[in-house]
Amino acid sequence: MDTSTHSSASSSANSESTNARERAPSGAMSSVSVGNGENRVSKATDKVKLKAEGVNVFYGDTQAINGIDLDIYENEVLAFIGPSGCGKSTFLRCLNRMNDTIDICRVEGKITLDERDIYAPDRDVVLLRAQVGIVFQKPNPFPKSIYENIAYGPRLHGLAKRKAELDDIVESSLRRAGLWDEVKDRLDKPGTGLSGGQQQRLCIARTVAVSPDVILMDEPCSALDPIATAKVEQLIDELSESYTIVMVTHNMQQAARVADRTAFFHMGDLAEVDTTDNIFTNPQDQRTHDYITGRFG
Amino acid sequence: MSLTIEQRRQHRLETIEKSLSKRHRKENTFRRLGLVAVLTGLTLVAILFASILSKGVPAFWQATLYTEVTFDPDVIDIAPKPERQEGETQYAYDERMTQWLTQAGLVNWQSLIDASLEQALGEEVEPRQLRDLRALVASGERYALRDRFTEDPSLLGETVSLKMLASADVDVWVKGNIDRDLPDARLQLSPQSRAWVDVLQEQDVLRQSFSTSLFMNTDSRSSLASAGLAGAFMGSLFMMMVVISLSVPLGVSSAIYLEEFAPKNRLTDLIEININNLAAVPSIVFGLLGASIFIGYLRLPLSAPLVGGLVLTLMTLPTIIIATRASLRSIPPSIRQAALGIGASRVQTVFHHVLPLALPGILTGSILGVAQALGETAPLLLIGMNAFVANVPGSPMDQSTALPVQIYLWQGNELRNFFEARTSAAIIVLLGLMLSLNALAIWLRKKFETRW
Ligand SMILES: Nc1ncnc2c1ncn2[C@@H]1O[C@H](COP(=O)(O)OP(=O)(O)OP(=O)(O)O)[C@@H](O)[C@H]1O
Ligand SMILES: [Mg+2]
Predict the structure, then answer these.
(1) Do residue B237 and residue B304 come from a single domain?
(2) If you compute the radius of gyration of chain B from its CA atoms, what whole number of angstroms results?
(3) How far does the CA of residue B325 sit from the closest CA of chain A (Å)?
(4) pLDDT confidence of A35, banded at 50, 70, 90?
């Protein structure tokens, strides 16, 4: 095999000086400087949050994912890139078992969250999805009020005992998603009445409201304009202080801007995973190289 | 050889223009065809309604005699109504009451009616002409008079203004629903009766009055003029209750299970195909099935709205299941994914999000299915609901008919002139019931509609 197997690059690879935004480090840190010159600071720790070992995924008889091994560290931002149809969404959905909802989909191999197998028979998928939340490509708010959209998850899991607590969760979630100021006067209006970008941030707030450990995002900005995209990117950066974030993106500048590490998928294989810097400046795999250069000209 | 670019452009222009006019012609033809189809449909509906309304609405008014009836003590020559005495057992009291009622039944009430008509006509009627006189009044009226008296014996000796239904023959004659030039032998009313009708009409004793009997009475064979819909209406109502309370919960829950939870395999495919086939089974087959299962095997009573309701439930189930599944399928999958992604279980996803969104469609489908069942006749004939029942059913277990069956029975009655209008009136009542059900469906749809 070539370098397409995982390179479990430790995120402590190139420790650097800190800037004003940085909080007290809880582990080894890495700061990745990216193409556009902006500096962001990784909040990743050494702890492996999610671990995939030999994951195969089949849709009926066709195999969509071929034996992927991948470690995802706590509080890191990991981006999945790769050509269309290469299995990014499929692999992402494995991480909180959203693939269970597709009848013909079959997952093999082992995925652990905090060293516990998420596909174990005694594992409750409800609890798993409360721990590993997901934001979809197309904003999909419930056709209910903004308040109800956020409150649904906490209420479902019994996270708030009193109305005041629930109000609190709604407000803080909307604040985290940077949406509070825009919607605080119309919490009782339908969530579907917001603009596309606002809806996407509402969906992020909805996921944040159940305080998951990991947030999966499947092309969260693909339907958004540059300003809304910038807002979501900033949000991801802020969220990475306390959440592990895995995102699929087709926008390589975006990966470069927000991701600590980047994984390149190719035809169901994980071709390469490394710090975002390395992927974009010094790819080890020929396929990565072709893809990156093809894109950047 | 080859064309210049200019020539090609010219050619292209011409080709497209030619095909354009063809396209427009096609579009116009299609539009005109559609318009014709819609107009034809509308015309037919208009004709249907016009004919039913023009025939049926007059039946809501009926020839009625407004007369003075004297409760003549010479005719009503019976003991006073018994009253409960101290120390008397209930049984003894009932015994005496029954005797008294029997006595009252033997009184010649008809002669009181005869007397009141004689008075109205202002002439003495010879005994041999009594037959002609009695042909004017609905034969049920003498029992009405009896009941009036037994309820209130203090009327003895009093003279009371009464409304009495004229007989069906008189109603037909007065409304002109019969050719007046027919020879006497082919007219139901004798020349003498007809002459009296004219006199009574002149004196305003015989007038049209709103027909409460149509709504308050059950069907009648002895007194055709007072035949009413009450029994059939209640029977239909009880059947509706049975159908709604069985087919809606059963149908909706099986649809939810099949659509949202059942694994997709051979077995569920087979079930799906069979449900679709069931929807196409002629309703009379369900009647046969009901007759053999509910009556033959389970020994449920014949002619009961309960059995009718069960049969119609069988018939309605596939319709409701199909409508509910279609409605569930139309909910965008992104809503389900959103709920699942937050950690809702499948049941929670369905009941918190999918079902409320699908509700308008489910309600509309269910109500239309129920309305269809309401108009069904054939299966009811097979379980004996075409029996003649002279009582208003008090429960779904009592014998009864149903509105569509009553329509069927009336339209076959030999006194066509009278029952043609009555049939149309019954159709109006049935259509009214259906239209209100449909209005309910529309209202519910509006109420629960959510935009996303
Ligand atoms: N529900 C499904 N049923 C059958 N095959 C599927 C299904 N979803 C995805 N696939 C197949 O699996 C492969 C991977 O699809 P996937 O959606 O994961 O790609 P992707 O990398 O997310 O692509 P994109 O960037 O276009 O979103 C594709 O070949 C696709 O056709
Ligand atoms: Mg995808």
Answers:
(1) yes
(2) 32
(3) 18
(4) very low
- Checking DSSP bridges between strand B61-70 and strand B159-165, what pairing results, if any? antiparallel
Inside any domain, residue A56: yes
Query: What residues are in contact with ligand 1 under a 6 Å CB criterion?
Result: A 59, 64, 84-90, 102, 104
What global pTM score does this model have?
0.80
Beta carbons of A124 and A166 less than 8 angstroms apart? no
Please give the tally of structural domains in chain A.
Answer: 1
Distance from residue A91's CA to the centre of ligand 1 (Å): 10
Domain containing B156 equals 65-209
- Residue A242's domain comprises 2-292
Instruction: Tell how far the Cα of A266 is from the centroid of ligand 1, in angstroms.
Output: 12
A285: CB partners within 8 A, 6+ apart: A2, A3, A4, A264, A271, A272
ipTM score: 0.81
Residues B282 and B167 in one domain: no
The 10s digit of each residue's pLDDT in B208-239 is: 999 888 888 888 888 888 888 999 999 999 99
Q: Which position has the token pair 């014996």?
A: B153
Task: Of A190-199, B34-43, B81-90, give the range with the top mean pLDDT.
Answer: B34-43
B186 lies in the same domain as B99: yes
Same-domain check for residues B247 and B370: yes
* Confidence band of B1 (pLDDT split at 50, 70, 90): low
d(CA A56, CA A69): 10
Of the candidate ranges A27-41, A149-163, B198-212, the one whose mean pLDDT is the lowest:
A27-41
Chain B residues whose beta carbon lies within 8 Å of the beta carbon of residue A126? 343-345
Q: Residue A67 and residue B111: Cα distance in Å, rounded? A: 104
Answer yes or no: is B201 within a domain: yes
Distance from C-alpha of A205 to C-alpha of A175, rounded to nearest angstrom: 8
CATH number at residue B405: 1.10.3720.10
- What was the pLDDT predicted at A67? 92
Contact at 8 Å (CB) between B309 and B239? yes
Residue A190 falls inside a structural domain: yes
Q: What digits encode the pLDDT tens for the residues A180-239? A: 989 989 999 998 889 888 999 999 999 999 999 999 999 988 877 888 888 889 889 888
Contacts of A103 in chain B (CB under 8 A): 263-264
Round to whole Å and give the CA distance between A296 and B442. 57
Task: Establish if A278 belongs to a structural domain.
Answer: yes
The number of folded domains in chain B is 2
Among A92, A116, A117, A114, which residue's Cα sits nearest to residue A105?
A92
CA distance B182 to B71: 39
| Strands A261-266, A77-81: pairing kind | parallel
Tell me which amino acid residue B107 is.
V
End-of-domain residue from the set B179, B209, B239: B209
Residues of B with CB under 8 A from a CB of A: 263-264, 332, 334-345, 348, 352-353, 357, 450-452
B240 and B198 within one domain: no
Residue range A19-25: average pLDDT? 34
Q: What is the pLDDT of residue B77?
A: 87
In a domain, A297, yes or no: no
Is position B46 within any domain?
no
* Residue B32, domain member (yes or no): no
Which one, of B323, B332, B336, lies nearest residue B445 by Cα? Answer: B323
C-beta of residue B322 within 8 angstroms of C-beta of residue B276: yes
The CATH number for A61's domain is: 3.40.50.300
Q: Which residues of A249-269 are buried (b: 16+ CB within 10 A; e: fewer)?
A: bbbbebbbbbbbbbbbbbebb
Q: What is the DSSP string of B30-81?
A: HHHHHHHHHHHHHHHHHHHHHHHHHHHGGGGEEEEEEEEEE--TTTS--PPP
Report pLDDT digits (tens) over B289-332. 999 999 889 888 888 899 999 999 999 999 999 999 999 999 99
Q: Which residues of A touch B334 (CB under 8 A)?
A: 136, 138, 140
